[in-house]
Design a protein that fits this description.
Layout (H helix, E strand, L loop, with lengths): L12 E11 L9 E7 L19 E4 H9 L5 E5 L9 H10 L3 E6 L13 E5 L24 E6 L2 H14 L1 H4 L2 E6 L6 H11 L4 E2 L3 H6 L6
Parallel strand pairs: 2-4, 4-5, 5-6, 6-7, 7-8, 8-9
Antiparallel strand pairs: 1-2, 1-3
Cofactor: Mg(2+); [4Fe-4S] cluster; S-adenosyl-L-methionine
Pfam families: Radical_SAM
Keywords: 4Fe-4S, Iron, Iron-sulfur, Lyase, Magnesium, Metal-binding, Queuosine biosynthesis, S-adenosyl-L-methionine
């Protein structure tokens, strides 16, 4: 399947919940100082969501203003997150501008929307929603054909049943060969991290156990 570019809408503004500088808590750049650009709005309602405050509200900002704010932190890494960033078409030119500025850019997306138009320099962190998320029917499996070694696939595991489901998708789609990283993350407060670690080791999976570093350090405080 071809992964085609899509022209964004002309009005170069985005609704932004927050822009802040912190440590990346997840993905392959975990622990690295990163600027987060959190876009407002999401069409999904995962039962474990920890950013429901980004569903509505926010501030309209131009792409120019966002890029200027990011530059003020002099970062190396930038993460565009949400909510669901791809629900706003002008996330595409924002991602391109951030790449053009020389940052290492990642995009955290639910996997429910088309990723094919995202700049190839961006590391797309694509969720595959498990049955326990309450949004498994929203998975857009067509996205898998667009994955490259620059991308990452994430499963949030809510139960042993979720784990078995995630393993079946890992095998069915050969995700470890398509993406640079496959991440298994325990749903906070639902799966014991030691249990998940033991399952991964017992099955000798080609995946990375992912902990949410920000929750360990800042204990769910917003803005981290």
């Amino acid at each position: 399947m071809a992964c085609l570019a899509v022209t964004p809408v002309a009005d170069m503004t985005l609704r932004i919940t927050e822009i802040f500088y912190s440590l990346q808590g997840e993905t392959r750049t975990s622990g690295l100082p990163t600027v987060f650009v959190r876009l407002t709005g999401c069409p999904l309602r995962c039962q474990y969501c920890d950013t429901a405050y980004a569903f509505s509200g926010g501030e309209l900002m131009s792409v120019d203003a966002i890029v200027e704010r990011v530059a003020s932190y002099n970062p190396r890494y930038v993460c565009v997150t949400g909510g669901e960033p791809l629900a706003q078409p002008n996330s595409l030119p924002l991602l391109q501008r951030l790449c053009d500025a020389g940052y290492e850019v990642s995009l955290e997306t639910s996997g429910a929307l088309d990723i094919s138009m995202v700049d190839e320099r961006v590391s797309r962190v694509v969720d595959l929603k498990t049955p326990g998320s309450a949004e498994v029917l929203r998975n857009r499996y067509e996205n898998i054909a667009c994955l490259t070694r620059n991308d990452q696939v994430k499963f949030v595991i809510c139960s042993r049943e979720d784990y078995d489901w995630a393993v079946s998708k890992l095998i069915e789609y050969g995700l470890d060969r398509r993406a640079g990283e496959v991440l298994f993350s325990p749903s906070h407060g639902q799966v014991d991290v030691r249990a998940l670690a033991d399952w991964i080791v017992a099955d000798n999976l080609p995946v990375r156990l992912q902990l949410q570093l920000h929750k360990i350090i800042w204990h769910d405080a917003p803005g981290h």
